[in-house]
Amino acid sequence: MMSNVRQLRDKTADSEKITINLGYVDLGRIDLLVQEGFYSNRSDLIRTAIRNQLESHVEVVSKSIERHTMELGLRDYTKADLEALKAAGEVLHVKVVGLARIAPDVTPELALETIGSISVLGALQASADIKKALADRIN
């Protein structure tokens, strides 16, 4: 009966959960603003505060990304990308601020042959096998 059910695609997270510790007074002030209707919940206030703080440093972040020759945002590395690098005899140095994803069909062998280093400020999504194979190349 269930033979006609199939998974269309994996759902990947578009955010990462973090944990912070706050003092009781700050937490109470947040709860007061939520209660007064300024924010829908604690997370909404915290996300807004973080975005506002990041916006106040946008120029510094941009210059740093440029100086370190990093890519900003989402960067996917496909099997075809890595095979093209291998064919050209080139080695990739991943430098991303945001999310770097290595496609699920990339083998550990191909990753080892083509990826020289990985530096991600944010999150790296790759199979456990890829992460294990590249462990000494991930900063």
TrEMBL record:
Top-level taxon? Bacteria
Name a single GO biological process.
regulation of DNA-templated transcription
User: SUPFAM superfamilies annotated for this entry?
Assistant: Ribbon-helix-helix
Name the InterPro entries for this protein: Arc_rbn_hlx_hlx, RHH_8, Ribbon_hlx_hlx
Q: Which Pfam families match?
A: RHH_8
The cross-references to PANTHER family, in alphabetical order and at most eight, read: BLL4998 PROTEIN (PTHR36215:SF1)
Protein name, entry field: Arc/MetJ-type ribon-helix-helix transcriptional regulator
